[in-house]
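Lab notebook, bench 4. Still working through the backlog of constructs that have no structural model yet. Next entry is a single chain of 552 residues. Request: give me the structure tokens for it.
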Amino acid sequence: MSFSMRSAGTSLSGFVGLPGQPHLCEELSDEGIPQLRFPEPFNSAEYFIDRHLAEGRGSKVAVRTLQREVTYAELLDNVNRFGNTLAALGIERGERVLMVVNDCPEFFFLFWGAIKAGVIPVPLNALLRANDFAFLIRDSECVGLVYSSEFAGEVEAALRECLWRPRVVLRMEGGEDTLTALAHDASPELRPVPTRAHDDCFWLYSSGTTGRPKGVIHAHGDLPMCCHFYTVGTLGAEENDVFFSVARLFFSYGMGVAMAGPLWVGGTTILDERRHTSQTVIEVFRRYTPTMFAAVPTFFARMLAAGVLTKNDVPRLRRCVSAAEPLPPELYRLWMEATGVPIMDGIGSTEVGHIYISNRIGDIRPGASGKPLRGYQVRIVDEAGNDVADEMPGRLLIKGQSVAKRYWNDPERAAKALVDGWFDSGDTFRRDQDGFYVYCGRRDDMLKVSGRWVSPFEIESTLIEHPKVLEAAVVGRADENGLVKAEAWVVVKNPASASEPTAEEIRVFCKSKLAPYKFPAWINFVHELPKTTTGKIQRYKLRALAGNVGLR
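Model written out:
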């Protein structure tokens, strides 16, 4: 029994209905926007995990690491064992389990096992420090906490300083009293808890670039919606694709391209627990020949700067994805030159669940984030909430089925950011005459120079075109007269070239490319730019260093 589609005339390629499940359909909302219609009950673990055996994929490899392979049959078996173990430990439906787990098959087992058992998994950024973990343990009021042994130092320190103590605290591996050992003896049979598409399914915490992280609550229908409209509808992923992502699974970007997307189409994902470097990624390319590759712009730049990537290293690669930060046009050009494979730049967010604006194969504009996906409405508005004309900058609002309905324990923030189904992204965008959406910066990052709004990204893209520049970030700084000018922070490819003559070269280069009021008034060389663990530049840290010209 295949999944049927209504109104939009597309199909979920290769999907087979589960026994006793009504059809999963695409239909038009009252506003004429494509959306998914879900049966009741609907537990998303059935659609991401269980159905693959019915569709004949039991022996196919679902997850491959440097050490082992996990077939779809083994995936289902372990998901059921982990779900049964959580129930046996007394964790009940709707209670939270924090996950500080590296990129390994057990991440899949715990995440989907919890969902199937009605428990709420909450993957955390595994690179946080003890005080951050202590805040998240306390804020989430979690009942369970599972962590990989390599993160024990920070997690256990957090538990010692935190007043909130989860009832269940387990290491993932490394002995008898671990979750993996307990799951080994659990039953491999588990009936899914009868949830509904709009019921709470999992949480992700926002990156905290604008303050304390916020608990973003996603429903069972959110990941299917993201996968249908992005993974299949935009990326064009298929069952025979092999996925590899530099973005980690705890990050909504990585979760979408390295776990949810591959499972949705019945593909294979490659996981590498090591710290990603140009060399480790090349090793994965040569050993496993992925067809889908996802990274952040910084990593694409570093791979190119390493000078080790050739077209021979990517014989099966057919799609590259970039998100988290805008992709400079020069970086797109250099990647195409080196690999022959275009990068589909896009923008997404934790609150929306995944990417909602993207370039498409055959419709790519370097320097633009792309066009809205089917299934999403997008508006650019002024401070009064009115739509702005094309080419005018404004706040980006997004509406779609996968937008989170609320934040955990934070109604005040939710009231500001989530209004009538619209999510205020906090980003400034403009739409060009051809319908491409162009990122201008975070609302607080925009510069008003000589009475005109300036996008730091435009200046950064110009800086990166200079042959000596690897990365750049631009912030505003007041001069001696109190007037705001652009200040550039630059990472050069060869540290030895960080000098005043190079700075003068860059100034002359910018003057040939930019309007006079956009020239960087100051150029500082740094070894690296401050970033979050998800790859976003922390411009507020650069603003705090204003005036430290020539900082090394």
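Notes after review: Confidence is low (pLDDT under 50) at residues 1-22. The radius of gyration is 23 Å. Flag for follow-up if needed.
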